[in-house]
Amino acid sequence: MSTPEQLSQFLAEVERRAYRHAAFTVRDEQAALDIVQDAMFKLAEKYVDRPAEEYPMLFQRILQNTIRDYFRRQKVRNYWTTAISFVIPGQNDHSEDEDAVEYSQPTAESDDPANQVNTAQRLIIIQEALEKLPARQREAFLLRYWEEMDTAETATIMGCSEGSVKTHCSRAIHALSKYLEGKEITL
Amino acid sequence: MNEETFSKKLIQLVEEDVNNLPPEVVLRLRQSRERALAHAQQHRTGSFGLSGNALHRASWFSHHRVTSVAILIAVIMLLTTGLWQISFKQQSDDISQIDAALLTDDLPVHAYLDNSLVQWVKNPSQQ
Predict the structure, then answer these.
(1) How confident is the model at residue A110 (pLDDT cuts 50, 70, 90)?
(2) Mapping DSSP to helix (H, G, I), strand (E, B) and coil, where does residue B53 land?
(3) Which of A35, A175, A63, A183 is closest to A123 using CA atoms?
């Protein structure tokens, strides 16, 4: 059984990454903060008695489920919004089917980016690249390389096979690389 | 650059960004963490306040809400049926007692010796 200090230390270590992870996914900073808060509460409420070694897996699973719950609620909300504003087309065209999002070619406004991009801009472009990844690819990539989980742990959290995790990661890296190349960003 | 190196470099940059989050975000995260820890502390205290069996039962009922409601309804139905059965039996016994009392009512002895009464009992329409 873990101590309160272990839980505190774990949450302090993970909270910022969890926030960024949620923000990449939901693209709404306030919603991301709410999601992290919910995830922390759920961990504290239901799994406080578990050993501290189990916290990373449990927390990531809770976080992913909380993000899915957020999208479900959004979907219901959007359904009613669309139903009400049916007569005004084109307002809710930003589809929730994130897997359909593909990488676009660099836009005209980023002409000659090599001379313009500084560190802050580079970070913004990396964030954009991560935000534009399909949800499953982003989830796999962040869990594997940011949370440093192995393929088996990532597969357990994502509820898929290890093969799928490898595929998602590989595609994510390929897509990120292509996007950054398009923006003339070198790592 | 291979996939592993690319990923590590990219994550390193994202990590730098995470260490430079806006102060209001950092504050909100800290507040959320503190609330969660207070909640956990409360949960621990609450748990230690209960005996092992009580805790187990409380946990079971909280995790099997549908089953708990079904059990409650079944108990209520059984109690209702039992009460109805008891009251029906009591009513039936009361009727039997009244019938018996009426049948064995204190009829005068000479009535049994009265021929006209015997005839009336055999054929009441003649009277």
Answers:
(1) very low
(2) helix
(3) A183
Please name which of A64, A163, A168 lies closest in space to residue B7, comparing C-alpha atoms: A168
pLDDT digits (tens, 9 = 90+) for A113-157: 454 456 778 888 888 899 889 999 999 999 999 888 999 999 998
At B17, the pLDDT band (50, 70, 90 cuts) reads: confident
Q: Return all residues near A31 (Cβ < 8 A) that are at least 6 apart.
A: A22, A70
CB contacts, 8 Å: A40 with chain B: 32-33, 35-36
- Take residue B86 and report the two structure tokens written for it: 């008891």
Quickly count helices (H) and strands (E) in chain A.
Answer: 7, 0
Weakest mean pLDDT among A86-95, A145-154, A156-165: A86-95
Please tell me the predicted confidence (pLDDT) of residue B62: 66
Across the interface, which of B13, B18, B33 has its CB nearest the CB of A17? B18
Q: Distance between CA B114 and CA B112 in Å, rounded? A: 6
Gap between the terminal Cα atoms of chain B: 124
Best A13, A21, A33, A166 residue to mutate vs chain B (most B CBs within 10 Å): A33
